[in-house]
Every structure is written in C-alpha cells, then in structure tokens.
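Handout, section 3.2

Students often ask what a structure token actually looks like in practice. Rather than define it abstractly, here is a full record for DUF58 domain-containing protein. The first block is the sequence as you would receive it.
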Amino acid sequence: MTLTPEKQTPTRRARRDSGAPPTPPDGAVSAPQEAETAPPPVGASPQVTRAQQLREDAAAFAALAGRRARAVAAVVRPVGWVILASAVVLWVVSTMLGWEEVMIAAAVLTAVVLISLVFLFGRTTYDVELDLTRSHVVVGERAVGALTLTNSTGRAILPSQVVLPVGSGRGIFQVPRLAPGAAHEELFAIPTSARGVLAVGPVSVLRGDPLGLFERTHDRRQAVDLYVHPRTASLEGLSLGHLRDLEGLPSQHLARDDVSFHALREYQPGDDLRHVHWKSTARVGSVMVRQYEETRRSHFVVGLSTHPDEYRVADEFELAISVAGSIGLRALRDSRTLDARVQKGALRSQSGRRFLDELSALEHSRPREGGIVALAGAIAAHAPQAAVVVLVTGSKTDSNDLRLACSRIPFGVRVLAVVADTRVDAPALRRIGDADVLTLGALDQLGGAVRKVLS
C-alpha cells in the first residue's frame, strides 16, 4: 500500500518570507474578508435615464419652439391677426358649405397676406449714429438731437422706417432709398414736461407692408439716458448756516485739541503735553493746559421725505424736490459738505449735476419705510456732526410728527423744516421747538423765506 505523505504546515518564518497570509491557529475560525463594493455602473437603470433624457429633450424643444413662436408673433401687428383669423374662418366656412363667394374672399385675404410678407424681406444694415446735444435738461426745455443713417454696404437699401423710442412714446422717421455710401440725417426735438429719466433709444430699423399687417424691427444702437432735472431757484446772495471750521464760529462744546482757545485749566492725566501753558505753570506753581472750544466742519444735510401719504397732490412732491435741489445746490456752491438723504438712503451729491441726476430719478418710497420721523432718525444716526439740517416734507405731515422729527436731530445742530403746500399764496414762518418751519406754496417764494429766516 502506497502511503501518501502528510502535508506539512509551513513555519511562520517561511510564510513571512513567501508573503502568504498567516494561518489561523487550530480551532480558530478565520473571519471572512470584506468584499470590495464597486460603484454602481453607469446606466444601471437605462429606463429611468432614457425617460429623463426624453424629458430634457422635450423641455429644450418646447423652449426653442416658444422662442420661435414669440419671434413670429412679434412680427404680426393687431390688424394682421384680424386678417389671418378672417382668412382661416372663411376657408373653413367655404370648405364646409361649399360657397364659392366665401372661397373667393378667403383667397383674396390669403393673397393680401402673402404679398404683405414680401415687404419684410430686405437689407437694413444701416450704420446708425445717435447724437444728443444735451443729455441733461431742466423741465420745460427741449432736448435736441440728430439721427444719422449711413449705407456702408455695396448695395442700395430700399426705403424703410426708423423708430426712436423716447420714454413710453416713440418717434418714426421715413428713410428714403440710400445708395451705397449715402447718408441720411434726421433732426428731432424732445419736449420735456415732467421730471424724470427718459431712455432715448435703442434705434430700430422697421420694415413692414403698407397695410400695416406685419412689422419687423432690428435694433441698431443702445439707449441713451436723458435726465430731466427739476426746476431750482438760484438763491444768490444767501449763505445757509454757519461755517464751523478755521474761519467759522465755534460750538459750545469743549475739547482738548482744536483751534478756538477757551480757557486754562489744571493738567489731567491723558492731556497732551503740547498744550501746556508754561508761563502760567511757572506763575501758578501747577501744570496748566489750554482748553479749546470744539469746532465743526461745514456739514450740510438735506433730508427729503418721499413718503406718499405726506403729500396732498403730485405738485407738492415736485415742489419739495425743487426746494431740496435748490438748497443743496446753494450748499455745494458755498463749498459745503453736502449729505442728501431720503427714506431709501443717501443720494449721490459729490457735484451739482450728480445731485440733480439723483433727484430726476426720485420716486415715492414705500409706506413701510417710514415718514419724516424715520428720516430724521436716520440723519441723526449717519450725520451726527452736521452743522445744519434741512427737512423737506409735504402739507399732510402732522405738526406732532414734525416736532418729533426735529427733536431727533442732535442738540446743537441748526434745524430748518420746509413744508411744501401748493394752497399757500405767501410763505409762512413759525417755530416748533428750536427749529424754524417754513411753509411754501411756490418755488419762487424760497429766496425771500430763507432771507427771513437768516435775518
């Protein structure tokens, strides 16, 4: 009998040298190795992926079809929709009833539509130049401009129309046939009857049929903003407030370092040794320092309330804007630091033109943003070092609210409140606390009223 040799278990050293995994001891159960989890293959659920792809393709096709449909609908004018609907109805009626007269009418309308479509085709590649001589005007002035169209192509361009939108309206110019290299110029004047910012343009080249069924436009130039400034009064010869700087008047607050000398006092820890008065120190026997009165820069603040419930009519709001603009311009001409604020925040007032541009675009604020009292609180928080504060509001502002608003201005600041009331024939001056209150009915009353306040 042939004996099979027993299989010897390799020693631990031999297993370590060969790199084989260690053998568990007798009686021990080896733990199963964790199976590596491979990431799920892409496309494991082909039906779901295919459905998603179909939905995405359908959404993209619907968006493209919607854009094309809107583009086609924009070409058809209201009269064109009526003619198209009439043609469809006549064709349906002639087919169902067999009436030859109705069929002839449907054919005529269809021929009119097809002939009108021919007018949409053609070259409109003009070089357009829009020139506004003045982009900033005052209410009542005319803004004059020129529109130049040049044919820079090598072929003639058939007659067409050019549309120039101005605010909510538009102007239409007839352009004749232009030979290669020819130019055509149109002059225009824009009347301004109200304050605001008007968008002039974009210039559009219009092609359409004589019946007005279809119309195709091509924008050739971006819009230009036309600022219509509010009316303002010059206020010549008036100086509003005090200059509290090197050449001005000091305040009643004491400071350790300034330009207006007040008195001498004994030295306290923390005082600057540069302000020690040595002659008095030698005479008295203790260290004496100079004390100064605090001076302020010429910081002028104009607060214009835009709350709609504070104005009786729209003319009062326009009068308030004109008053604020007039006082702000006077402050800028006096080289003052101007801070103009409304309920929505600060207005840019680095220069007179920028300040008037901000007033041109001003509108009523939301009622939840507060009225004159909230505006005064914002001024006190953002401009505590102001020298003069002018609050402008409407005739519906309550006297208690006006008194509360003036009381929120920091102590020591001169306050002037102006109430716009178009029912007043002559300006009126009264006092509410420490503030002067002016009531005006027209802009030309502002100069005399301010002189009365300063006198």
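Discussion prompt for tutorial groups: The chain has four domains: 61-118, 126-229, 254-293, 299-454. How would you have guessed this from the sequence alone?
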